Amino acid sequence: MRLKEDFAQVKERMLAFWERQMADRALISVVAPKTPGVNISFFKNDIDFHGDKQALADYWTNPETIRRVNLGKLEQTYLGGDALPILFQNYGTSGHANYFGAEPSYGQDTIWFDPVLDSLAEEGIRYREDVLSRHLAIAAYLVRHAGDDYFVGMPDSTGTLDALGHLYGSQPLLLDMLEEPEQVTRAVELVNAGWIDSNEKFHQTARENNLGGGTHAWMHLWAPGRIQHLQCDLSVMISPAMYERFALPELVAQLTWVEYPVYHFDGVEQEKHLPYILSLPKLRAIQWTHVAGQPSAAHFMPILKRIQAAGKGLII
Fold first, then answer.
1. How far, in Å, CA of 267 to CA of 280, rounded?
2. How far apart are CA 154 and CA 89, in angstroms?
3. For the packed helices 63-75 and 53-61, what is the interaxial angle rounded to 10 degrees?
4. 8-state DSSP, 155
5. How does pLDDT run across 30-87, given as a tens digit for each residue?
6. pTM for this one?
7. What distance in Å separates the CA atoms of residue 3 and residue 132, rounded to the nearest whole number?
8. I need a surface site. Which of 23, 152, 212, 294 has the fewest CB within 10 A?
9. Is the Cα torsion angle 115, 116, 119, 121 positive or negative in sign?
10. Who contacts 171 (Cβ-Cβ below 8 Å, separation ≥6)?
11. Which secondary structure element, helix H or strand E, spans residue 131, and what is its range?
12. 37/30 Cα distance (integer angstroms)
């Protein structure tokens, strides 16, 4: 690859990682601006669009703008170790909420969603393939113009309970877990079906560009098959019993599709759910996130060793 000439060697390390082995060394990714002060962040843009809603929408949804901005950042990035030139499709965190009617609110550095559902009744949950088609067209454009410059990563369509929080509101969702549990369970099933369908279509759109596999942008991962990360950030607000009832079935269903799954472990508060997460035989790795205000991963060595002892890889 033009921006990663030693990719063949990186690929061998990635293949070893997925098998819980090591090639010549452990994987390490280091990114830094080639010129001090240059913005290389996936999330932070350089232009103040305050007051210009059309320009802001263009920044997030125009395929040529997405390609130009992100390729420009990749070209300004030192990709050290096993860091990869992967273009990030960002339609919002838990972005498959888009395909059930969520209305994105575009910010300078992120995308927000405001609730659109009055309840989780099944008749109100409708899959919007027209919205998905627009995003797939962006993905196809990015692939068509990738050349030898970059991989096209999977979008941030992760966490179905989190997506329901976008669609319905986190507080009503938490209350319904107590008052309407069967309705929540059915809503998870419906939105999860859209998660699988949309992720498969994104995977197929970019599979050839990704050398027959898939890529994850902000984790700098390549895999020889379907890759996506799983998450339930909402879980910091629920008990292990509720996690078992509502989150675990979501994960089990998603694992019928994804071949190289990573669980996004967002904060040490999720430690109480580890028995359920580690019980998933198909889960290959856990990505430990250093949450603002919490000590670094080095302060949680017993938990990290526990994850490894369960046969899961670690991304820190």
1. 20
2. 6
3. 70
4. P
5. 999 999 999 999 888 888 888 888 989 999 999 999 999 999 999 999 999 999 999 9
6. 0.97
7. 30
8. 212
9. negative
10. none
11. helix 129-144
12. 16
DSSP string for 210-274? TTTSEEETTTTEEESS-EEEE--GGGGGS-HHHIIIIIHHHHHHHTTT-SEEEEEEESGGGGGGH
CA atoms within 13 A on the CB side of 105: 7
- Indicate the SS3 state at residue 99: helix
Q: Output the six-digit token pair for 31.
A: 């990114």
User: What does the radius of gyration of the chain's CA atoms come to, in whole angstroms?
Assistant: 19
> Cβ neighbours of residue 122 under 8 Å, at least 6 residues apart?
183, 186, 187, 190
Per-residue tokens: 89: 């499709």
Residue 107, helix vs strand vs coil: coil
- 244 within 8 A of 232, measured Cβ to Cβ: no
Collect all residues with Cβ–Cβ distance below 8 Å to 192 and sequence separation of at least 6.
160, 250, 253, 254
Structure tokens at 221: 């991962």
pLDDT in tens, 100-156: 999 999 998 899 999 999 999 999 999 999 999 999 999 999 999 999 999 999 999
Degrees (nearest 5) of the Cα angle 244, 246, 252?
75
* Beta-ladder partners of 30: 80
Q: Within 10 Å of residue 254's Cβ, how many Cβ atoms? A: 22
CA angle 71, 2, 262 (to 5 degrees): 70
User: How buried is residue 142: exposed, middle or buried, by Cβ count under 10 Å (0-12/13-18/19+)?
Assistant: buried
Candidates 111, 104, 75; CA nearest to 90 is: 111
- Would you state the structure tokens that stand for residue 24, as one six-digit string? 């010549």
- Summarised one tens digit per residue, pLDDT across range 234-255 is 999 999 999 999 999 999 999 9
Supply 83's token pair.
């860091």
213: tokens are 């596999």
